[in-house]
Amino acid sequence: MKKLLIIVVFLLASVSLFAVQYELPMLDMTVPSGLTANQMYVNFGHKMLQPLNKYPTDNFFAVVKNGASFNLNLRYMIWNGFEIKTGYNTIADEKNIGLSLVAKAPSQGLSVQADVLYYNYDDRLIRNQMASNFLYLLSAQSVPLIWDRFSVAVNAGYDGYFSEFVMGLGVSAMVVDNVTLVGEYYPLANDIMEKGKIACYDFGIRYSTYGHQFMLKFGNSTQMEPRELMLGTTTNDMYVGISMMRFVDFNSGE
Model confidence at 61, in pLDDT bands (50, 70, 90)? Predict the structure, then answer.
């Protein structure tokens, strides 16, 4: 785990700033922003709380009846390379705000981003207190590879509240124009697994238009935020979720 983090940090440190717009959204992972100045993304999602592998045979609408988690995130590029963001997640009544520094290195086949995020949430189930936390996150994503259809992504960071190094790995493959298969895996450090946690994963499909990204996803956690997914889950149940990203360009009035 630590060797992987060292490799990622070295890779991110080796690129130079370069202004190019391109973004390939993953399901839940953070990817380097493709926005330019005065552009914004609004992202919201639902994750159903009814496990699909424990679906009651006598209640067809259980997936709706048993509720869902909800998150809402906004990202705005102040000027090229500097992005502000904020979000809300109904699980643990979590609020966050952060700042991103984006670097593009297309000649090296890579885009990177450094995030500092502040979280406030209810941690009464674990430490019986309201918690405040900083997450320091580095993300990297390749330009489209192999006929411009495949891309890989990496998240590596440090959770200040739990004092843990965290990571996420992802891959996407465009099967036909505008339709992409996506998979994510969040490996855990040994000390997190010793607390009874297991690694989270997501897989699903993304449909893209100029102004929207629609996603259908499946995974073993009800969470949709990278920080929580990188800290693992306690069950291997299967959940389904949906999310949508809306692109807003204030330069053109869209």
Answer: confident
Are 217 and 243 contacting, i.e. CB atoms less than 8 angstroms apart? Answer: yes
Range of the domain at 38: 2-248
| Total domains, the chain | 1
Instruction: Say which residue, 190 or 206, is predicted with more confidence.
Output: 206
Q: Is residue 202 part of a domain?
A: yes
Task: Give CA–CA dist 232/187, Å, rounded.
Answer: 8
User: Checking phi first, is residue 243 left (phi over 0); if not, alpha (psi -120 to 50) or beta?
Assistant: beta
Q: Is 32 exposed, middle or buried (0-12, 13-18, 19+ CB in 10 A)?
A: buried
User: What are the C-alpha distances in Å from 160 to residues 64, 85, 166, 189, 230?
Assistant: 35, 19, 11, 15, 13
Q: What is the CA radius of gyration of the chain?
A: 18
In a domain, 231, yes or no: yes
**Is residue 11 scored above 70 in pLDDT?**
no
In DSSP terms, 98 is beta-bridged to: 85, 117
Instruction: Kindly state the DSSP code that residue 107 receives in the 8-state scheme.
Output: G
Query: How close are the terminal C-alpha atoms of the chain, in Å?
Result: 43
3-class SS of residue 20: coil
240: tokens are 């389904």
Residue 200's pLDDT band, with cuts at 50, 70 and 90, is very high
The residue assigned the tokens 């406030």 is 120
Give the pLDDT confidence of 169-189 residue by residue, as tens digits: 999 999 999 999 999 999 998
pTM: 0.85
